[in-house]
Amino acid sequence: MASDSDSDGDFVTFGTPLEPLEEDEPLRKPVPLYEQTVKDEKGRYQRFHGAFTGGFSAGYFNTVGTKEGWTPATFVSSRQQKAGRQNARPEDFMDEEDLGDHGIAPRQITTTADFASGRKDVIRDKARAITSLSAPIPGDTVLEDLVAPARSSMGVELLRKMGWKDGQGVGPRVKRRLCKQRADSATRAFGSASPPNGSSESQDEEDGEFVPENVTFAPKDVTPIDFTPKVDLHGLGYRGLNPLAALRGGPGTGHINLFTMDSDRTNSLFGEDRKGQRRRGGVAGQGFGVGAMEDDDEDIYHRDIMSNYDTVLGGEEPGNGLYGWTAPQQYNRKKKDHSKDAAYLGKILEGFTLASDKLETKTIFPPPNLPRDFRPVHYFRPVVDLSSVSPMVAQALQTSRGHMAQEEPSKGGRHQLDSAQRRELLGEATLQGPSSVFDLLKVEDRERLSSLRRPSSDTSSGPRQPTPGEARAAVVAAGVAAAAARASAQKALSSRFAPHAEQQQQEALSVWSGPTAQAQTGQTFKPFERTPHKQARYDLYIDQLKQGDRDALELSLDPTMTEWERGRERDEFVRAALLYKPSSSSLSCRFTRGKQDDGVEADTVEVTRDQENDVDDKQAAVKMKMFGKLTRDTFEWHPDNLLCKRFNVPDPYPGSGFVGMPKVKRDKFSVFNFLTVSESPTASASPAPQGVKPSEPGKRSRWDVSGQAGDKERKEKDPVSEFLSVARIEASGSGPEASTTDGPTTDPTVEPDTEQKEEEEEEESRPSMDLFKAIFASSSDEKSSSSSEGESEEEEEKEEGVRSKAGTGPQISNQLNVNTTQPAPPVSTTPSQHPDILFKTPSGPAAAPPPRDQEMEEEEFGPRLPPPSSTLTAERRPSPTPSAKDDKHKKKCKEKHKAKKHGKHKKDKKQKKKHKRHKHKGKQKKTKKEESSDSSSEGSDGNGQEEGGGVSTEELLRRLKSIRGKNLQ
Amino acid sequence: MVRTQTNTHTVRYDCCSTWSCLCIYITRFRCFSSSHFLSTHLSPPPLSLSFSADGNYLLSCGSDKSLKLWSVSRGTLLKTYSGHGYEVLDADGSYDNSQLCSCSSDKTVILWDVATGQVTRKLRGHAGKVNCVQFNEEATVILSGSIDGTVRCWDTRSRKFDPIQILDEAQDGVSSLKVSEHELLTGSVDGRVRRYDLRMGQLHVDFINSPITCVCFSADGQCTLTSSLDSTVRLLDKSTGEMLGEYTGHKMKGYKLDCCLSSKDTHVLSCSEDGHVYCWDLVEGSLMLKLPVGKAVVQSLSFHPSETRLLTAMEGRVQVWGAEPEETEEEVVVVQQEKA
């Protein structure tokens, strides 16, 4: 700060000098630190540094606030007034100081980085200079250089930082030899001319002599390509009159040498000056005289010599003026290039080189030859509803459509096709030799295989499978004889065409060739709609049946199929023909209208896996006010995961893929829904498929008839006996019918007995008793079926008459149940594995609790299983009303217990007890337990019996009565 | 005993704990102040009534396309919610009285904000009239049953407008719907009562063989009450489906009329087409009271969740019925307490 005033000129002063000290003035108090302020010229407090230059002495007492506190100047409440977003610029945070001359953002005209003079981009300049030689005005680029600022790019800057210097090449330092090669390649690559006389080469060699071995050099710089656009309209390589030559004169003569190349100039640009080249300044040439300043006394009056001109046509070396002076230089002086360039006869333009690699020619494939009859217009074949046309037409259509027709229905992909279809598609010939693996097997092996396959096979093997329907039919019709027949049928399994099959064929023939069939023109039902080929064959078969052809079946089958497939199809066709015979109402009554109409294309329907029990039963139960097990169905139901979450309930089926009731895909009109017809001669009624609900009105009539008939008696009878009797009537009703018609002529339209069907189905769905015993062995057996047994004795007498009428119906049915249940499906069977089982049994997957309805049925008709859910819930359940009504409730319970005792001991009072209330929650547990033990032990008994050969009617009765007793309580 | 109508109709309900007492009370039911409930639903009758969860408010919806919220104690109209395109068929309030949901013939379900009266959400998806609507316990899901045979579960939490799940098991229109903690009870015209147990993942179907008009859970959650068009009200055991009681005498042949249980599960009440409300003893099954409401069909009724009060709807009139106090002194005492 302090500076000598004497030597002002030598020092720079900064700040304000102290006032000169005067002697007489009293000493001033030193100004305290906080009062030492600096003010600017306007009297404002001067800050030493702005906020942006590292200090914080801003605003109010070195804060960014004000006296009122800190408020951003641009604050706008966004609530009332949604201010548009304001983009803050850096200037908003600067003050005058920052914007001043010495601030960080001075407000005055300065050269920005763009225009700041830096090092020129030498490379580009060079490139420009090279091209500028060819430019019409030689000094063109110089002007540009003057005007345009140069700024080296970031890459160059980086390179420089890394030690690169202008004029050097980029890359690791190299030894001499490499370096030379580099240079060669560089020149070649960019087509710049190499020195014509090899002067530089010689130079290099000279250099190499004195350069020590361990010295490396930077690689030679590459000449950049000039990217300046071609703005003139000349042809490629054309240069017009060479202005250089005109101005400077030729190297040797005063003659305007049209043929001299300016390679010398280029060489100079590459830093290789030609030594000894004489250069003249000034303007010289033919048209100009010799000035006073000219040194030389040349022959100014130039005489053109004739040797400058060609006197002979041809005979000259190529490149000597053939193309005028625009002809490119010859590069074939170098031996390396010679071979390459020799192949090229023409001249190479400057800036171009011959490609080192031959350009690969694109192979162009000719378009395919169109067949002669090809028409470039596509038209759509009309889709004909096969059902509306006659089978013959349909067949014709099918064949005419050919493969297209086959591709259309292949929704399931190629896996849906059988081998024959695939073969047809591929156009392969039929294989010789045994057509099936089965042919290679021994007979007994085959038999064993088929018996193995039976329990789990799909319904396609239905005929060979003793289905419940078959079994029942057999019972009803022929009793024990049927069993024998089936046994024999099983023995004759290897020969699939047992006599009865022939019979069936005959039957089908007789049915279809009848007058009604002839009258019915349009075929409405297509069982094999999914596979059009098969359907076509079936149509053909039906058609031939109609014509009364005896060999209809054999004719209609596909001869290319394997024996096994043909046999299968034969069975299916015959059965389908029997089932869908004309004017049979048996089918129509089995269908209910679909909930929603799918498209015609959809050939499968989603059907809930668990179906409701028979409505008729329930109606009867409701009529008798026997609510409870009879009227209740329990299904597996999958709530949505989110729904569970919303209800604060854990997902009962975590990870289950679907929602709602478990669904099963089923063919809409699959013949397998009906193919449970027996192979036994007594082909009576097939059980209604699970997928379709029996129509109510059709069946109601049966109930109604019997109901009206025995209306009065029923009122006196107690409900269960009534229930039973109805069942008996039913059984007996269908029994004689079946037996009279006897054998193949049996009408398939016979109404299936609903009761028995129920039994059958639930019997089948239940796994074998051994399994249950294995699981629930501990809880079973103490068995006191005293009450129910007592009842049964009583009831037996009552039922005696009915039973005699009904014949051996129930007994045999039971016996057959034993047979049908034999291969008890393992509990772990999943629906996907055994679709067949699913078809008939509504048994859920093992993980899920068994459906309740099944359970109930079992309680009624079979050994009772320990119900996992119901008993548990019953036990857990608190009394309905808490404290207030407790005593009352107890009283009620007591009453009921009394009532129960009555029920046990005074059996004659039984009838009246119907009217008692059945609020018996407390008691229920007990009864249930009793029943369960009771029935399970019975089950074991029954099992033994079953193995022996049948369940007695007494057994059945007792079971029924046990339900009744339950319901009465 | 003739009494003057009073607005302070508070009664000692706590003495209703024993059955006989309640009996007396019920036999002395009277319309205490139906006049000020002569609602602005005027000509179009209210179709459905319901108490709010705490019983302080009542909600009536009618064919004037609107929904009305009333104060039970004062009998004043609090708010009208309009936004439906057709008659409103059913409504329910959330547990905290902050939201309402209603359903209408216009196939929509609307979630309302109680305070502002604004439509919070309008849920479309049913293919037909929506007969019944219900919140779940926490008002996170709206369940609506429609004539198209489906029950749709709508999420009130998310912004999705698609139902969480569609229960399409019913083969005919769903006429009534009740929700308990983890169960959903639906009554359908196909004559079946379906109980969806979310916890067990099971669906229990009880066959009644007559179109169901109304289903209810009992307060203890052990029984279900169903009324059907065969003029019968049945009390079924929830777990087994057995019938515990059957109540007949009223007339229910064609209309979708309500039934309900009293707040303490002691009585069964049902609307009737002969203009009465029938009241049976739950256990005995005997008719305890035939409450004459008017000449026309009693459209709807609802029982107070905690007190002995009954709502009835008939011909554009909503009436609140309360038990008459036994002693005059008691009433005076109560009134004084209220004034104090």
Structure description:
Chain A is mainly α and 969 residues long. Helices cover 41% and strands 2% of the residues of chain A. Chain A has helices at 96-99, 122-134, 140-147, 154-161, 176-190, 199-210, 243-248, 263-269, 335-343, 391-401, 403-407, 419-426, 437-440, 443-456, 468-478, 480-491, 499-512, 515-519, 532-546, 552-556, 563-579, 615-623, 641-646, 696-709, 711-716, 719-741, 754-765, 769-776, 786-806, 809-821, 835-840, 852-861, 870-876, 886-905, 921-948, 953-968, and strands at residues 604-608, 632-636, 663-667. In chain A, helix 15 (468-478) packs antiparallel against helix 30 and helix 35 runs antiparallel to helix 36 (953-968). The longest helix of chain A has 28 residues, at 921-948. Chain B is mainly beta and 340 residues long. In chain B, strands 1-28-27-26 form a four-stranded antiparallel β-sheet, with no helix packed on it. In chain B, 58% of the residues are buried. Chains A and B meet through helix 22, strand 2, helix 23 and helix 33 of A and strand 13, strand 17, strand 20 and strand 21 of B. Chain B: One of its GO terms (biological process) is mRNA splicing, via spliceosome.
Keywords:
heterodimer, A: 969 residues, mainly alpha, 3 strands, flat, disordered N terminus, B: 4-stranded antiparallel sheet, 2 helices, 28 strands, repeat (chain B), WD40/YVTN_repeat-like_dom_sf (chain B), WD40_PAC1 (chain B), cytoplasm (chain B), WD40_rpt (chain B)
* Low-pLDDT windows of residues of chain A: 1-7, 178-208, 249-282, 331-339, 402-412, 456-485, 487-499, 515-523, 595-602, 673-721, 731-764, 779-951
Q: Which runs of chain B of at least 5 residues are low in confidence (pLDDT < 50)?
A: 1-44, 326-340
Number of helices of chain A: 36
Q: Which strand order do you get reading across the main beta sheet of chain A?
A: 1-3
The count of β-strands of chain B is 28
How would you write the strand order of the largest sheet of chain B? 1-28-27-26
- How much beta of chain A, percentage-wise? under 5%
The residue fraction in helices of chain A comes out at 40-55%
Main sheet specs of chain B = 4 strands, antiparallel
Which geometry of chain B do the CA atoms define? Answer: globular
Helix-and-strand structural type of chain A: mainly alpha
Which two chains form the greatest contact, residue counts included? A-B, 58 and 53 residues
For this structure, the quaternary state is heterodimer
Fraction in helix of chain B: under 10%
By secondary-structure content and strand pairing, the structural class of chain B works out as mainly beta
Average pLDDT level of chain B = 77
Strand content of chain B: over 45%
First and last CA, distance of chain A? 119 Å
Radius of gyration of chain A: 55 Å
Q: Count of helices of chain B?
A: 2
InterPro entries (chain B): WD40/YVTN_repeat-like_dom_sf (IPR015943), WD40_PAC1 (IPR020472), WD40_repeat_CS (IPR019775), WD40_repeat_dom_sf (IPR036322), WD40_rpt (IPR001680), WD_repeat_MORG1 (IPR051980)
Subcellular location (chain B): Cytoplasm
Organism (chain B): Oncorhynchus kisutch (Coho salmon)
Keywords (chain B): Cytoplasm, Repeat, WD repeat
